[in-house]
Amino acid sequence: MNNKVNLFFLPHAGGSAMGYMSFKRFLDNSLINPIPLELPGRGKLIKEKPINNTSECVNFLFESIKDIICNSKYAFFGHSLGSILTYELIKLIEKEEMPSPITSIFSGRMAPFISYEHTPISHLDDEDFIDNFSSLNGIPEEIMHNKQILQMIIPILKSDVKMAEDYVCQTKDDKFDFNIHVFYGNQDTMIKNITDLTDWNLCTTKKCTLHEFDGDHFYYNKNKAYVCSCINNIINEEV
Question: Which of 72, 71, 73, 86 is nearest to 9 (CA)?
Answer without folding.
Answer: 86
